[in-house]
Write a structure and sequence with these properties.
alpha/beta; seven-stranded parallel β-sheet; 15 helices; about 45% helix; about 10% strand
């Protein structure tokens, strides 16, 4: 079995992660954050380095134990978890997966033309999930068994305000409906807000949930998916509620959103009250530029562009990590990670090189 991929050991430090996100001074070491590490990448890391040795695959909590083992091995200070099985039935399209670590069953995409709700009859007939009925088994297990040097980031299955508008209606239908069915758009938004309010309340009941992370893609390369004015009416109030609930409970509210957010960043920072922004793409706004623009008000997370991670050499990855950390680490408010997520088409060696170079970096006050 190959040697461990890292030169410098890392001990999880949830308190250090929280201080970093809250911009409370230069951290003692680099902290990492990812919205997702694709299953195929995790499995390859486990296969190479024996991460799961000693775990009983027949244990009913094996999958949760596995996640703790993977996160600790890679150097993360947390696990991500939300309510169990809060599912919205949606329409998907499937295609072959051509990645080197191909996904079983291919890749799935949302149907962009017409989703399950295109009119009032479909709205009334839709099987809306009941957040009070969703179980919290995973949160309960983590609360009792997660090592004390790690925390739970409450995330997954909630705060998809813009995404679920486009997924439930279909993006094309949503665009038309903003002109001729605005009352239906508003009704869907209100239903989402009611659902996510309960979801977040239930997550916040767990003390080990110390950070809340909303995930909601709102844009594309040159702008928001719907007009900034419509974002302010139908999407941002939901996130403002999520941030307010998080802050009232003493937790920071992180936001993942793909796309060009320039037109609504002031809203997100000043009105919504996000504490951190995640998802950066070089062709939209490189992470160092974003740090210079917003880093005095919010934390900046990730930013190692996914396309770059796919195409660069390991030496190029290491050089960029060092350059980014030298610029963004002083003072706190930056966590290292990909610009979006560690997809199954990112070379595993490049992903590990990114993490290893972060471990080697010596933060200076």
């Amino acid at each position: 079995m190959p040697a461990r991929p890292f030169d410098v050991p890392v001990q999880p430090d949830r308190e250090g992660l929280l201080r970093c996100v809250r911009r409370e001074g230069t951290p003692e070491r680099v902290h990492y954050i990812e919205l997702f590490i694709d299953w195929e990448v995790q499995e390859e890391v486990c296969r190479r380095y024996g991460v799961l040795e000693g775990l009983d695959r027949d244990d009913p909590h094996f999958m949760l134990q596995r996640q703790v083992a993977v996160q600790r091995f890679l150097g993360y200070d947390y696990v991500r978890q939300g309510l169990d099985a809060l599912d919205f039935p949606l329409k998907h399209c499937a295609t072959d997966d051509t990645a080197a670590l191909a996904r079983t069953g291919g890749r799935n995409y949302m149907e962009e033309h017409a989703g399950p709700i295109t009119n009032w009859d479909e709205f009334e007939a839709y099987p809306w999930p009941d957040p009070e009925a969703a179980t919290t088994d995973s949160l309960e297990w983590y609360s009792e068994n997660l090592p004390q040097d790690m925390c739970i980031i409450g995330s997954g299955g909630f705060a998809h305000f813009a995404e679920h508008l486009t997924w439930l209606m279909g993006y094309e239908t949503l665009c038309f409906s903003l002109y001729d069915q605005r009352d239906l758009v508003e009704a869907i938004g209100e239903r989402l807000t009611a659902t996510y309010r309960v979801s977040l309340r239930r997550m916040l009941a767990f003390e080990r949930v110390e950070i809340i992370w909303g995930s909601d893609d709102m844009g594309f390369r040159t702008g928001t998916l719907i007009s900034p004015a419509d974002m302010r009416q139908f999407v941002l109030p939901g996130h403002k509620l999520m941030a307010a609930m998080s802050h009232e409970a003493g937790r920071p509210y992180l936001l993942h959103s793909c796309g060009n957010m320039t037109e609504i960043m002031q809203d997100l920072i000043e009105d919504v009250g996000i504490d951190a922004r995640h998802s950066f793409e070089d062709v939209i706004e490189p992470v160092i530029q974003a740090y210079d623009r917003y880093g005095d008000r919010i934390a900046i997370l990730g930013g190692m562009d996914v396309d770059f991670l796919c195409r660069a050499s390991e030496d190029e990855v290491r050089a960029r990590v060092r350059r980014t950390l030298e610029h963004c680490m002083p003072g706190g408010g930056y966590c290292l990670g990909s610009g979006n997520s560690v997809t199954n088409y990112v070379p595993v060696d490049n992903f590990l090189a990114m993490l290893d170079e972060g471990r080697r970096f010596a933060a200076t006050p």
